[in-house]
Structure formats: structure tokens, C-alpha cells
Amino acid sequence: MASLAIEKSEMTASASAVPLRGEWNGVNRAPALEPVVFLPGLLCDQALWRGQVHALADVAAPMIADLTLDDTIGAMAERTLAAAPRRFSLAGLSMGGYVALEIMRRAPERVSRLALINSSARSDTPERQRQRQAGIESLRRGKFVGITHRLLGDLVHSDHTVGPVADEMRGMASRVGGDAFIRQQHAIMTRPASLDSLEAIGVPTMVVVGEGDRITPPDHAREIHERIAGSSFHMIGSCGHMAALEHPEQVNFLLRNWLLNEAA
Length: 264
Description:
single chain, alpha/beta, disordered N terminus
């Protein structure tokens, strides 16, 4: 059965609770609420989008995809599509953005709007693939340590390497675990480039990036924006690769405006 972690508007404080799977939680929602599928990034779970789910509860009926079960971007996209509503708005961060672009290739007629946050349309370089493979082999020989201080410095702005954002990052990584991390790394390193398919995207699209994003830097975001006609581009200051956690208020404001735009 297809699996999808579902985030209700009244999320409990414990993100470690077993998520509901394979269900759409919009049954008791007002018809005006827009179905929104949120796609997490590498080593992230539903807690990544907690701030957005709460802040947008009056306009969005959210679902958060479980991207820990598959080892290719295509399989992640198919699992998400199998459990998602017939038509929905789509928001992805980092690896979630790669999955979002794959969904746009496979089922563009099902997507009303697209938001790409801290993401890229490029494939891995051969050097980056070698680095990922070396990391996978090292993990298989040793112990999964989650988010190290060095990795955290690459993921978030220096303002956020200590405190709630850092704690949330470590907590999510611990819950995702080493086996899922290996699957996700394989999916990322084998992902196809999406640059040539961007011009075919015809839904309202928003591109967001952190000014200090080291993983998918602003020039990656700008090239997405430049190739998708009518898309909007937003850069968040004092922000690294995890905008939804680092600056939730700004991301919430942008997502609300995005949701209130007329869909295609």
C-alpha cells in the first residue's frame, strides 16, 4: 500500500509518534481549504513542516509525504502520487524539491501550485556522487551519528547552529535513522537533472532560497526561477539551507500568499 505521513492541523508536540499512513485527512475539513502536499528534505520528517502546518491551518489541508522508504526520486514521487488527493498544491524543500520536480514530470495535471524551497534542478556532479558513495560505505562500516556539528554548519546559518533549530535537526535525523539515510542518499545521487523540464511547468510557482544556503545556493534557485515563466523568487537573509525551520514566519507568509494566488 502506498504510504504517506499525514500532518493534522493540530499536530501533537511529539513528532516521534507513528504517523498515519495511506489516508487523506481532509474529510472533516471545510471545502475552502486547499490540499497541500509537503515534501521533506534529507534526514527530515514531518517536524520540518510543523510551523507551516500550524500557521496555515485556516487555508490549507496538509499532508506530509514520507520520503524515507524509497531509494530513488522516481519511487518517492510515485508513492506520494499514489496516496495524494486528486489535485493538490505541492511544496518541497531540498530533496523534497527534487521529488516535486519529478511529480511535475509525471503528473503535472494533478498539481495546482508549486513551491520549491532551498532546492535545485541540477543533478549531482560526479565528485559529489563520489562523496555521497564514500559516506554510504563509511556508514555501512560504522555507526550512524546523525547530524554532526560540521554538517550542521553546512545546513543552517551560523545564527542557528546552537538552539532550537539545531536541536530539531538532530531530533529529525535520529528519528529518520541510518538505513533511511542511505536510501535517501542513493536517491539524491542518482536523481536526474530537471533543468530541461522547467519550461514546461505552467502552474503558479514560487522559488525560495536562503541567502547563505551552501547546499543549493542562490544561483541554483535563480536558474529555476528564470526558466519557469511567471514564477516568483524570494531570498531570505541570515538563512541557510533549512528556511522552513530557520525562518518559519517568513516562509509562512510566502506560502500563504502563494496559496491565495489563483491556481492554474
